[in-house]
Write a structure and sequence with these properties.
alpha/beta; two-stranded antiparallel ribbon; six-stranded mixed beta sheet; disordered C terminus; globular; 14 helices; 332 residues; disordered N terminus
């Protein structure tokens, strides 16, 4: 009986959805000069941003409740410590009754990319132009962070997220549908998706930012993997900057077996290698052909060297073992 209780307490309940939400419109989104006098983490929402967050809350509730058809859904929130994200969460929360909220946690690792301290407007304009030439992922802002730095801390957050799931820190009944809602920032959300789906740096560079209070739904598929293609359309993913290969991958994840990912997503290996043979036999055949080409080359070289006289006959014996052994005699 005790063993059964321990097994039940350690039962892993995978989230049905992970929803990434960008904050509502902030004063900094409307007027860049706000950053020159107000620290980034204190930038508030505009009235429009508050309205956006309220609307997003209603939309997210429809998603997690399957438009009211589900009766056993729960939500758990992670939120960036910035004023605009905390305010966004507060407005989103108005759409959820207390008994549906498992918990909430402020998570510093999903905060906005650090652009420095007070941001002088003209200087930041020049710096962002340099970033576009250098590359958005690796460019580090003076006194701030690069997207690569954000990637490192978001990766650390993901490790914590999986430990929370593995150890059932949400204390859920296995029959409950858990929805993790992460209220964060545009770049942090794109980095999260890049890490989650193993996208490359080059693929990250083509991703478009989320709009204010726009959200992405990463949903668990029937094969045990997560996908954007369950909730979102192909047209939406194209607008976000996903390539045809990335979209095909999302469609496969929606219903494919998680263990067969590399076998069914050949394009991912092609990102790193020019051409891979399908089997080991193909590689050995190529090696044999290369060795035969080498032998023919030797024959041509010897023909040039000894061909000054009257060449009447080649006598050639080839023995096949682990490698080729060639015997030849020249008669004149």
């Amino acid at each position: 009986m005790i063993q059964q209780q321990q097994q039940h307490s350690h039962h892993k309940v995978l989230p049905k959805r992970i929803i990434l939400v960008r904050h509502g419109e902030s004063q900094g989104n409307r007027d860049n000069s706000a950053y020159t006098t107000t620290p980034d983490y204190k930038i508030p929402l505009t009235p429009n941003g508050v309205a956006q967050a309220k609307l997003a809350g209603a939309q997210i509730r429809r998603v997690v409740s399957d438009d009211g058809r589900s009766r056993n859904w729960k939500v758990y929130f992670y939120v960036s410590p910035y004023e605009r994200t905390r305010s966004t969460l507060r407005e989103i929360g108005r759409s959820f009754p207390r008994d549906r909220i498992v918990g909430v946690r402020e998570e510093c690792r999903i905060r906005e990319q650090d652009f420095g301290n007070f941001q002088e407007e003209q200087r930041m304009k020049v710096i962002k132009e340099i970033r576009e030439r250098f590359g958005r992922f690796f460019y580090r802002f003076p006194e701030g962070e690069s997207a690569a730095d954000v990637y490192d801390r978001v990766s650390s957050f993901l490790e914590t997220l999986w430990r929370d799931i593995d150890m059932n820190r949400f204390h859920l009944d296995p029959s409950d549908d858990l929805n993790l809602i992460i209220v964060s920032h545009g770049l942090a959300s794109r980095v999260f998706l890049t890490k989650w789906f193993k996208w490359t740096v080059e693929q990250f560079e083509y991703l478009n930012n989320l709009g204010n209070c726009e959200f992405r739904v990463v949903q668990l598929g029937q094969g045990g993997d997560y996908s954007l293609a369950i909730h979102h359309t192909e047209e939406e993913m194209q607008e976000w900057g996903l390539s045809p290969d990335m979209i095909a991958d999302q469609k496969w994840r929606a219903c494919g077996n998680k263990g067969n990912w590399y076998e069914n997503c050949q394009w991912y290996l092609d990102e790193f290698f020019d051409k891979l043979e399908d089997t080991e036999d193909s590689i050995e055949q190529d090696q044999d052909e290369n060795e035969m080409s080498g032998i023919a080359f030797i024959f041509r070289i010897h023909g040039i060297i000894y061909g000054k006289g009257d060449v009447k006959q080649w006598s050639i014996t080839i023995f096949m073992e682990s490698t080729f052994v060639v015997r030849y005699n020249l008669f004149s």
